[in-house]
Write a structure and sequence with these properties.
about 210 residues; Rossmann fold; five-stranded parallel beta sheet; two-stranded antiparallel sheet; binds adenosine monophosphate
């Protein structure tokens, strides 16, 4: 049976950084934002449909987003352990995921929210540099330590767009928090703590995932 955790948290809260650490331990990483950026880079039809939304920091319609999610999930082995990063972003998306899970026998382990202040999220995003090839996340310009590609800034890591994305997060998170609390599957971590401290906390709940 596929099992998954959901990483909730405003942009810049460290979800991607932690996800990359768990990918090294065999977890699959489903970042809807990253999948969309790949489509935009490759100029696919889907990329053209979503590029305006992604660049302006507004939410892509659920049908398009969920098609990406179910495609990704359907390609996994039934022993896969998955981190959902940036999905779901609405109660409707959460319900679509739950229905998919019931139909396909997948199980949510926990929804984990990375909590940090808006100011800290903004500060981090204004200093974020990404590898366009592997998604490595750095905090200074330079080259990717994994594949030597030049690190780039995200077009939506622009101050006005960041503020919009942070505000959007504030609009949808309370619904999602309540949704997963009701299921008894919600946990919060302090996103201001060091990456190693957070990894240790996640290990306690995700360490069992691969056994
Ligand atoms: P992220 O990489 O998670 O920060 O997402 C970047 C952008 O991709 C967002 O600002 C949205 O435009 C789009 N996006 C990613 N995930 C979703 C989602 N679950 N629902 C709608 N839009 C999304």
């Amino acid at each position: 049976m596929i099992k998954y955790v959901i990483f909730l948290g405003k942009p810049g809260s460290g979800k991607g950084t932690q996800a990359q650490r768990f990918v090294e331990r065999g977890w699959a990483w489903l970042s809807t934002g990253e999948l969309m950026r790949q489509h935009i880079r490759k100029q696919t039809d889907l990329g053209q449909q979503v590029s305006h939304y992604v660049q302006s920091g507004s939410l892509v319609p659920d049908e398009i987003t969920f098609a990406l999610v179910s495609d990704f999930m359907s390609g996994l082995s039934d022993k896969a352990r998955v981190i959902m990063d940036g999905f779901p972003r609405s109660k409707n998306q959460a319900q679509l995921l739950e229905e998919w899970s019931a139909r396909n026998g997948a199980e949510l382990i926990l929804a984990i929210e990375f909590c940090l202040s808006d100011d800290e999220a903004l500060r981090r995003l204004l200093n974020r540099y990404l590898c366009p090839l592997c998604g490595f996340i750095g905090n200074a310009p330079g080259r990717c330590p994994k594949d030597d590609a030049e690190l780039v800034r995200r077009v939506d890591d622009d101050e006005a767009v960041i503020l919009r994305r942070i505000q959007d997060y504030g609009n949808y998170i309370s619904q999602l928090r309540a949704y997963y609390q009701r299921l008894g599957k919600y946990m919060a971590v302090n996103g201001m703590a060091s990456p190693d401290t957070i990894t240790k906390q996640l290990d306690k709940v995700m360490g069992v995932g691969l056994r």
